Amino acid sequence: MSVAKDAKAVSQVRQMLRDLLLGREDPEGFFGLCLSVLGDNDTRTLFMDLIKPISSGHVQLHSQLSAIYHEYFSKGEDVEVELALALSLQEVSQEVKEQRSAKPPQVKSYAELAGGRWAWSVNGAGVQDRGSRGLEKQPTVTKWSLTDAEVQGPTTALTKGRNAELHLAEEGDDFIKEHDAGQSQKLKRSRRRRQRKNQELSLLQSPSGSKPILLWLRRDLRMWDNPALIGCLEMGAPIIPVFLWNAAEEEGPGVTVAAGGASKYWLHQVLVCFNQSLEQRGSHLITQRAEPSSLEALLRLVAETGAGTVVATALYEPWLKERDEVVFRALERKGIHCQLFHSYCLRDPYSITTQGVGLRGIGSVSHFMSCCQQNPGTGLGTPLDAPGALPVPSVWPQGCPLTALGLARMPRRKDGTVVDWAANIREAWDFSEDGAQARLDAFLQDGVYRYEKESCRADAPNTSSLSPYLHFGQLSARWLLWDARGARCRPPKFQRKLAWRDLAYWQLCLFPDLPWESLRPPYKALRWSSERAHLRAWQRGGTGYPLVDAAMRQLWLSGWMNNYMRHVVASFLIAYLHLPWQEGYRWFQDTLVDADVAIDAMMWQNGGMCGLDHWNFVMHPVDAALTCDPRGDYVRKWCPELAALPDDLIHKPWHCPASMLRRAGVVLGGNYPERIVVDLEELRAQSLRDAAEVRRRFGEFVDCHSGCDLVPLPARLVQEALGSRAELVRSGTQFLLPVITRMEFKHQTSDPDGTDNPYSAVLKGYVSRKRDETIAFLNERDFTASVMCESAQRRERQDRHQRLLEGLPKAPPTTPRGRARRTPARDPYSTVPGGVAVPRR
Ligand SMILES: Cc1cc2nc3c(=O)[nH]c(=O)nc-3n(C[C@H](O)[C@H](O)[C@H](O)COP(=O)(O)OP(=O)(O)OC[C@H]3O[C@@H](n4cnc5c(N)ncnc54)[C@H](O)[C@@H]3O)c2cc1C
């Protein structure tokens, strides 16, 4: 080290020491950073002197640092060489260089490399050997076609925050157990610091001579917490990020509509943003049409670039998983080293098992979380920081312009003008990774408080709106979970949503037909309507039911609507219009920017009465407004032609007197449609009768003891349930499992002619109980206060009269004047004063 550089490094370490004392860094992190700044030799010689100043004031910290130092430098020479070889941190000997260029870079687990001590990453951040500290390895890496023993260990470099470990397990009402999560502020500071450091240190790498790595990007299009990206960096070779597009492969078999119009548009924008992020780091994205297949395209790229390794993040849709298996097997046969990283879900859905929990309650999120808790598997690990710069190849392969992929192609009118249907989507969203982060920060700062109680409101942005970012992996679920845990308000309900997301992927893995085939056999025979005009009206927001129309127009214009509204429109399509759930699924897949085959199919199956879970409710298209849009603000926004109607009639304009409609400028059947169906009660009753009818016809799929529907079990679940006894089962044997079934179906099946079903699932709309209680409390308090005020005034009046009678001077008034009044009785549309922020018009 030169003298100047030496002095700079030492002063940097002193600054880091101050951070350590302020609690912004932990001892292990500090030691790791020293190694990165000073290098191995200087750390060995200078470290103890540098920490001397704290030896008297911070005895415990000093001895902790000394212990770490001694432990690290007591490792054997062979470990050091192995470390250097694998991580290319040190100046490597010629012999080692030759070895590296001859073989594809091999990365072992840090625990292996460090021999149970400390390991160090090429990018500069300290890496803790988790094995030696009683924590589990991170499950991020799967080495393709190798045995379990060879599955790689953690990519723990550049971890976000401190020694922390997240588990997909339930703790009380919590989804995840965390051993030691740092506070979010601290994390952000440390994140920024580390990114700066990574930037400096990635410049020190000299990947020249190594075969480049193809980083095959599909989703997980982000810089932060991207294990595949960091995995590439750790190999110390030039990285070529490639995005290959083959619509047929994405689509898979059956009707998945995996790549609908709105989500393809989003993907296009994400690729633009991701390319910008790469360019900021000195790299760029190669885009190609994968013709005739991704395998062929990759083989061409390998030939063109001489790449020795292909790295990707695992995808879990069964058809994409199968495609990847074929691709990687073929590449391995050609001597290309392949690595697949897990990061899209919190838990790899193929690793979830029902062992120890059983199958009862399957399909519900509680059951799923019990499975995760009972079989925690490997921990989630800590989020990773973004790299500061990326090593680039000397020669880049040929790509095609992003527009040539046709992801954001707009239709043209006959006159040649473009129909820019995405203009509103562009306005509504910031597609960048920073945009995702900003939305998350804003939500955690503010929205998360309302989320826990008011996520059903459509008239206020009370949910995170992060779904499209999660779908395209601009935000990792792990990162989101981590930050949510660090939020000031612990949001268990929000965290649980991430379990829903994983549950959907688990279900898709178990039932690959989920997007097009009803899981409950009898319901395949349900009598559905074929009224195309109704479907069109529903799709375009022209049903005549303002709440449904507002939601469907929001979907069309912005590509999104909140969960509650998705339930409202799904209930309307299925229970009132009797249209098949698949129609709803397909429309959502085409119009949602967050269209996600697994989640969408699971939710539509559940809504369509044939999924693993049954929604035990049906949303009423008018009454639901009481819960989600009590003042009609949401309807006013998306159906402006109704804006002038009063709050209590805006959700049912057909009840408005003609004069009121005239004054409000509403013409039913003119500028706003008449209702496409009128007798909602009868339509609902018919839907119930239809369900009971198919259950009776296919009695073999109804459990005679519990009255529950029976679902054929997939082989994987049979295997888990029977264990070794599964071998004794004759092939082709079908097992049926009783699943959660709506009470009203059971009752209707047993009493088909009964007129009064006591289990009616139609929700009448409700204002949350908590809100009711708060209002009742405030009303009560107001009333008590006004009574007290009244009696004080009475006393004051008596006192004044008394003084007058006795000829004494007037006393100054002691209480503010005002008439005692009772707070008016709560009307159903009132909101908590100072609570939910819905401005009254
Ligand atoms: C009929 C129907 C279809 C749906 N289709 C999709 C879809 O295609 N893509 C999609 O991402 N979500 C879908 N959902 C689930 C849910 O409505 C959205 O995830 C949510 O509205 C997204 O908004 P948010 O990010 O503000 O959610 P938040 O409530 O803030 O939740 C945070 C995240 O948790 C996940 N999540 C939330 N709810 C669910 C759920 N019920 N199931 C699985 N994951 C969930 C999402 O990734 C979401 O971004 C559907 C729901 C219904 C009823």
UniProtKB/TrEMBL annotation:
GO terms for cellular component: cytoplasm; nucleus. Residues 171-181, 792-804 have a biased composition (Basic and acidic residues). Residues 186-196 have a biased composition (Basic residues). Gene3D superfamilies: 1.25.40.80, DNA Cyclobutane Dipyrimidine Photolyase, subunit A, domain 3, HUPs. InterPro entries: Crypto/Photolyase_FAD-like_sf, Crypto/Photolyase_N_sf, Cryptochr/Photolyase_FAD-bd, Cryptochrome/DNA_photolyase_1, DNA_photolyase_1_CS_C, DNA_photolyase_N, Rossmann-like_a/b/a_fold. Its cofactor is FAD. GO terms for biological process: circadian regulation of gene expression; entrainment of circadian clock by photoperiod; nucleobase-containing compound metabolic process; response to stress. This is Uncharacterized protein LOC115826567. Binds 1 FAD per subunit. Keywords: Chromophore, FAD, Flavoprotein. The record marks 528, 581, 604 as: Electron transfer via tryptophanyl radical. GO terms for molecular function: deoxyribodipyrimidine photo-lyase activity; DNA binding; FAD binding. Residues 211-346 form the Photolyase/cryptochrome alpha/beta domain. FAD binds at residues 451, 463-467, 494, 594-596. Residues 171-203, 790-841 are annotated as: Disordered. Belongs to the DNA photolyase class-1 family.
